[in-house]
Amino acid sequence: MRFDVLTIFPGYFASPLAESLVGRAVDAGLLDIRLVDLRLFSDDPHRKVDDEPYGGGPGMVLSAPPVAAAVEALRSEPGAPAPHVVFLSPRGRRLDAGVVRELSGRVRVSLVCGRYEGIDERAREAGLFDEELSLGDFVLSGGEVAALAVIEAVSRFLPGVVGDSGSVTADSFEDGLLDHPHYTRPREFRGRAVPDVLFSGHHERIRLWRREQQFRETARWRPDLLERFRPRTDEDREMLSRVARDRVSP
Ligand code: SAH
């Protein structure tokens, strides 16, 4: 899968894209990430990409022409698949596991990072973006962190990126529940033991215990998710009613 990242700070990405799972995926050729410096698309002799807001007020605005030139260059790249162009923006569709999975099915995604007070509104009006995505209801200083979040979350779904693909399907939100708790050595920590079942060596009992813990964790931390959960197996139906019962009379 290919990502293009349009940014005025390409250097920002050096370490996050070189380390860990994403770094390995890039090395292995599973991920192709191209950094596009928006300044190179500025007509200005000083490569200026921002200007004062019409109407006055604080801050600067990222101007439309360099963004348009960069996006159009990506869209018309010969021989490359058409990109799905995303503007990272606080007003966009909220990023969640469903959106991430949807993006992971695309062959090429271009991520446009705003800065300053944002991008001149006419960039959107001109149809440069296919959609806008938000990381959440808070304001970052630029789209770079949001772009990294998209790349890291999406790459977990690409075959071969996460070593054991089973660990992705058990992750939080994958089937509408949170993950179960995890334990490792030491066997005792500040007087607290590890649940006995995990030493039983009995795979089916461990699996059932972990599944039930997913229901309990979700009930405890994200009851809103549990309310929306629709069980598809008898096992899940049973666990759900058991957890619901225990919540009424703990
Ligand atoms: N004035 C704008 C914020 C601009 S922040 C407002 O109040 O809505 C500058 C840039 O950071 C934005 O253009 C966007 O690309 C990025 N950004 C800020 N918050 C974000 C969020 N929650 N999700 C995604 N991108 C965000």
Topology:
Layout: E1 2-7, H1 14-18, H2 20-27, E2 32-37, E3 50-51, E4 61-62, H3 64-75, E5 84-94, H4 97-104, E6 108-113, H5 122-125, E7 131-134, H6 144-155, H7 166-169, E8 188-189, E9 192-193, H8 203-221, H9 223-228, H10 234-248
Parallel strand pairs: 1-2, 1-6, 5-6, 5-7
Antiparallel strand pairs: 3-4, 8-9
S-adenosyl-L-homocysteine (SAH) is lined by residues 88-90, 113-115, 117-119, 134-136, 138-140, 142-143, 146.
- Order of adjacent strands in the largest pleated sheet: 2-1-6-5-7
Which CATH architecture of the largest domain? 3-Layer(aba) Sandwich
**CATH topology descriptor of the largest domain:** Alpha/beta knot
Helix percent reads 25-40%
Number of strands: 9
Helical stretch count? Answer: 10
Which stretches are poorly predicted, pLDDT < 50 over at least 5 residues? none
Class inferred from helices and paired strands = alpha/beta
> β content, as a range?
15-25%
Quaternary structure:
single chain
Largest sheet: 5 strands, parallel
What is the CATH top level name of the largest domain?
Answer: Alpha Beta
- Shape annotation: elongated
Question: If you had to describe this structure to a student in words, what would you say it looks like?
Answer:
This protein folds into 2 domains: 2-155, Alpha/beta knot; 172-248, Trp Operon Repressor, Chain A (Orthogonal Bundle), CATH 1.10.1270. It has helices spanning 14-18, 20-27, 64-75, 97-104, 122-125, 144-155, 166-169, 203-221, 223-228, 234-248; strands spanning 2-7, 32-37, 50-51, 61-62, 84-94, 108-113, 131-134, 188-189, 192-193. The strands form 3 sheets. A 5-stranded parallel sheet has the order 2-1-6-5-7, sandwiched between helices. A two-stranded antiparallel ribbon has the order 3-4. A two-stranded antiparallel ribbon has the order 8-9. Strand 5, helix 4 and strand 6 form a beta-alpha-beta unit. The chain has 250 residues and is α/β, with parallel strands linked by helices. The mean pLDDT is 96. Helix content is 37%, strand content 16%.
